[in-house]
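This section describes the prediction task in plain terms. A model, or a person checking by hand, is given the sequence of a single protein chain and must write out its three-dimensional structure as a string of tokens. No templates, partner chains or ligands are provided. The sample shown here is typical of the held-out split.
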Amino acid sequence: MDSDLVTRAQEGDQQSFTALAHDAWGRLYQLALRILRDEDMAEEAAEEALVTIWRKLPSLREPSRFEAWSYRLLVNTCASVARRRGRQRREISGDMGRPPSAPDAFDAVIDRDELERGFRRLSVDQRAVLVLHHYLDMPVETVADVLGVPVGTVKSRVYRALAQMRIALDVDRQPRPTAYREASR
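The expected answer:
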């Protein structure tokens, strides 16, 4: 990110902020989508995060930290949107940009569906650390810096999130009781 562009935007230059917002929109939306698992909520979170970035930009002390700072604001906004929406569970349309390419496309879809259900069972905080750490490939120390929490908290959230995902996937793979199978026919 261009620190001079951030500095000009901090000083109130709307063209500079427009350029920053244009550059940031895609990554903020994709990050919000991966955390919230809902297109409408992700769009709402990304838009609110950009408004918050505009309002709080003058208080950013280090323009070189703009990207990490914007991630922190987005993660906080995602948590706020999720609370406000009352944890509505809607299916996300599309496949988040990854068409099945393996010969066993059906198995890939099943695996992706299982992972999606497991991911939805996580808290927003747990989703955020997994997305930042695994999707954006940030080191744990960077995730801690972005979120403004200790490194141990990030490690704990990653550990608990992965454990919860394993449990959710194991539960999903358990055979249903016979009475349930017969009732669903």
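For orientation: The CA atoms of residues 45 and 77 lie 6 Å apart.
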